[in-house]
Amino acid sequence: MAVPAPDPRHVRLASVEEMRRLGLPQPPPQFPLVWEPGDEVELRPTAEIEARAAILHVVLARCFGMPAQAAMSWLLGSHLVDQVTRRSGSSSWAGEATTARSCCTTTPCTRWPGSSDSPSTSTPSSPPTTG
């Protein structure tokens, strides 16, 4: 169900005021609005939001050293592979997007238990959970 988006001018004024309060640089006066007055917005279904969050969780875990095989296994086991977006210009995401290393350098930020460059030998069955 589509609903009217808030007036972008009011959102801009509130955002600029908050930036001023925080001492951050402000956008130039000609900076475009993200949406136009009168535009409508529609929320995605809850299941789609949850799936996107789970996929982003795996992407983040890969950035911190989760092995590619563990990431792919988790995505396959969770039936989320078909919802992973292909990398632009790629004919296949299997070796690229799902490794999710594109969000950081080739060296993991930290070590993931079970990765080939970790002293640990245990392999996680799923990404870490939050509370």
From TrEMBL:
Tell me the domain of life.
Answer: Bacteria
Stretches of Polar residues bias are at 87-109
Q: Annotated region Disordered: where?
A: 87-131
The family database entries (InterPro entries) matched by this protein are listed as: DUF4272
Feature: compositional bias, Low complexity:
115-124
Q: Give the protein's recorded name.
A: Uncharacterized protein
- Protein source organism: Phytohabitans suffuscus
Task: Please name the taxonomic classification of the source.
Answer: Bacteria, Bacillati, Actinomycetota, Actinomycetes, Micromonosporales
